[in-house]
Specification:
alpha/beta; twelve-stranded mixed beta sheet
Amino acid sequence: MEYKNMSWQEQLRNGVKTVEDLDSYAKLNAEEKLRLSKVIDAFPLLITPYYASLVDWKNPNDPIRKIIVPSESEFSEEGLFDPSNEKSNTVLPSLQHKYRNTALLLSTSNCAGYCRFCFRRRLKENCDSVAEKKDELNEVFEYIKSHPEIDNVLISGGDSLVLSNERLDFILGKISKINHVKMIRLATRVPVFLPQRISEDKELLEILTKYNKKKQIYVITHFNHPDEITTESIKTVKLLINNGIQVRNQTVLLKGVNDDADVLAKLFNELVFNGVVTYYLFQCRPVKKSSHFKIPLNEGWKLFEGAKKQVSGLAKTVRYAMSHTTGKVEICGILENKIYLKYIQAKKYEDIGKFMIKKLPKNKDAYWFDDLIE
């Protein structure tokens, strides 16, 4: 399907959502259709025509395909639906307050595409954790007002930029009136999945630019592979930057997608060359039904360091980290059987900056903080 003849709204309406839609690209046999339909029943499928154009459909190991196309590996029950225990940080429907200075608003359960490793896939099953009504959102704003220690708000979801312009304007307008909030972050995969949402929507850019004059706005993108860096995605990034909006990128380390030092180096370099600061390389969370993406920590460290050797100083600012229940844990190094760690952020304020030395288990791989030995 030719996306260039569609508006971004038409792309969302005409995205790949069913096994039949997927078959038009992937040419599935009858057994594959049956099995994948069960996977999609558990977690929805959505691929925009633009993003589908990035897939090499003749290659079953294409990295973009692995990111977005359902797999029978999702039948695995290994892992947790809430691996970072976000429920324990939820103070109101849709609002989390884990770190002292940061409020996290889950603005929607919808995205412009559903990554198969999504750590919030539970939201598609239980939308009660997302505030959909303005009355619920007003409770959120009152909470933020009553907590002067909150100096920044992260608007996520789902994807913050699939919200309607009206709703986004409402949310940004309310937060911008809170004096002690100095910064707003918008977490989004839109520049990757549907860059036309930004590049073709003058009103959206006007909204972001308007509020960027009141509070510094950061767009936190999520490029995972160099093939996602296209003329159209970079056009969108440049539009944001040229309107004074800072852009940072988070990448998830994924088996079969970017578990190659050369691939990571190319990704980090291309982002920095186009004005996007590399922010985090995240260890893939132990999310139920996505264990096929996980990579051992010792292997991840080698890949990370191998990539950093090939990049410029600005790209070396990227940090390898885990978003654990207790906080954001930076992986500082691995030597023999010891792993060196530090809390970048912590649920317990006094733990921020705490340095830790733990051991890797013998005769088995460690994939997560909980796998490590004191």
